[in-house]
Amino acid sequence: MPDTPSILVVEDEDMLREVVVEALEAAGWATHGSATGEDAVGLIDRLPRLDALLTDIRLPGAVDGWAVAERFRARHERGAVIYATAFSATHTPVSGSMFFRKPYKLQQILLCLDALVPTRQRPPER
Asked: pTM of the entire structure?
């Protein structure tokens, strides 16, 4: 469906990533998941459309969430960026982004995405 908004979820904790992806799909998002920054950067470079990014900051490997967000912003200027971490922010976030401290409530993320991507089609209420 071309009007379905697309989001990349970057989270190294498998269970958390699965829960977030499932909740976003139920809310009408086309989701892509990644456990590492390297994989996320590859997806950002390959996928023709991404409307949003939700990324953990601390990731295994050489590419952290800050670098993932910078690559995302370079490719998708108007895309929504949400950072999530259990640790202190020690870097400057990309412009127009939001920051959530873990543990966060999924409803908070969904409301934030609604605010950052206001034109998306929402699924009908069940």
From this structure: 0.90
